[in-house]
Amino acid sequence: MRLGRRGFLRMAGVTAGTGLLAATRAQAKVPQATEEDTLPGVLVDTTRCVGCRACEAACAETNQLPAPPEGDEVMKTRRDMSQTAFTVVNRADAPGGGDRFGKKQCLHCLAPACASACPVRALDKQPTGPVTYDASKCMGCRYCMVACPFDVPKYEYEALAPRVRKCTFCAERQAEGLPPACVDACPSGALTFGKRHVLLEEAKRRIYSEPERFVHRVYGEREAGGTSFMYISDVPFEALALPAGVPEKPYPSLVAGALGAPPLVMTLWPPLLMGLYAFSKRRDEVAAGEQGHDQEDHHG
Amino acid sequence: MASAHAGALGQPSFFREKILLGMSLPEYLRSLITPFNLVAAAILAVGVPSLIYRFAAGLGASTNLSQAYPWGLWIGFDMMTGVVLAAGGFTIGASVQLLGLKQFHAIERPAILTAFIGYIMAVVGLLADLGRPWNIVMALVNAGAASALFEIAWCVMCYTTVLLLEFTVPFFEWLGWRRLHAVLKKALLGLTVLSVMFSTMHQSALGSLFLLAPTKLHPLWYTPFIFIFFFISAILAGISMVIVESALSHKVFARRMEGQPHVDVAAITVGLGKAGAIVAFAYFFLKLQGVIDGHAWGYLLTGYGALFLVETVGLVLVPSLLFAWGARHGKVGHIRVAATLTLVGIVLNRLNVSIFAFNWQHPVRYVPSWMELAVSLTLVTVGVLAFRWICNRMPILFEDPAFSHDE
Questions:
Q1: Predicted confidence (pLDDT) per residue in A234-277, tens digit
Q2: Which residues of chain B are within 8 Å of residue A159 when distances are taken between CB atoms?
Q3: Cα separation of B26 and A171, whole Å?
Q4: What is the pTM of this model?
């Protein structure tokens, strides 16, 4: 048994070593944000938003959703997106009195957690930028909802053929060369559509030109590895219902190490297990042989 | 008495002998009226209509799932827990077939049967939970290869097939199909290798699922190594499940064992107790490592900390010492108590990860609906009934003596 244990330890060492190798290789494959900076994005300057919710109405119309509630009453409570509202505007108190507004929708991550979670690629990151959903592939496991750090995907629990619902970044409009409906409808210049790297520069220019005013951070520059929707603000982002503490790592890299294991298991387990089998069989044969010798000795 | 009855009626029929255990239909039906069966029938009477209602009225009408809690009891218990409790299949299979631990031979078949039934029940639970279950075939054609769930889908499918093939060995003995039986018996070694391979992958991948929820799963449970934790605890669950199950089945089926070669359950239990002590101790230190890595010490003094301590100290460390004590002093009772505690601990771990400690900062908690509970309870009950039905008929607790010379 001593031999077996030593052999096992050696095997374990080899396995761990190769595992590390696989993990580092998998990590190297994760797309770098800089490569995708030419993708389209939207800059949300919350200091320019007047809370008119024209974006909500335009979104509902484009996506054939029920019209958003009218009146300012809805601004009194914090709202979340729902299966029938892909974008919502929330209110916060501004520093010098007055209101600040934050629009929420899918942030269209550069390396989306939801798409990497989806086992059937119903949610997928388009090369053109939007993270889109195809109900005909979806089996309704709702792992996307578990995975999304921004709690974006919503589910039609009441339906018999439920769908995942979320902002589409108006992928169809973009394909026709049009900006997303919400950007098109915004009257105050709070929303800017353009290439991500240009928007990022513009966001930082605005912060640098009024450093005493803005929070010194572009929300979405690094969150979850970078997102297509980015925010600047003069109130804490959490006050505008944007979740704090989202890791800066691209989400697919969180599972890369664990997903590096199956090829190892598939190549190492069968020979290792058959080796153990051969070992135990040999041990039995030796034991049987020794027993035979003993008996012979006795007879002799 | 049964044989006398069959004789009086002439030719013994297959149906009467193999299905009705040699009784006539009225006799058989009368024999079914037992307190256990009445309770089981009551559970099914609520659970089966609930399951039908879920498919007729939808997830929203039958469950308390929400936008914040997309996964509830059917994933947390039926899938996560059902699969880990079925881990005895590959653990014992590997011990007997690959490590040559012949002393566990007698419990290999019940362990494999438990695993087989467990996986089928888990899949039924999953189908109820999926919003678009008819699209489950999409997992075969659209490779979401970056998803741990894709790995699980394939491995569970392959492993259930392996379990089915392993189960055909006693099944063909029951039917008396010698030629096919011989073929599959020869294939057992290869099947066991496959079972270890698929189990390693999907048992750990069930943990990998939560790697994507660093902001949602409580820091005491979230660790980048959660997939290793899940794998080690699956082995521990396999060992514990086999200890509990062999104790129960050799009691319940004592009469069925009469006239069969003697199986020393006590000796097997002591052997499993040793393994249990080592694996539980290793698992406890892994859990400790998780706290150190996550710098989560501060959370130990909160309510979630108490839950974590109950899980790891009360239901892993304490049982590991009990296992060791029982194995050292040959106390079978201690080992059985340890195994039971361990099982409770692992069930609690799976529920903690998938339900209790998930979205822990969310103001509204998920509580399952009564229909969700009824369906989960029904799946467990159907599993137990199926296990008992098969054990009463097929050579599970022993090999058919007529086939033992074929090796």
A1: 999 999 999 999 999 999 999 988 988 888 888 898 999 999 99
A2: 58, 60
A3: 67
A4: 0.89
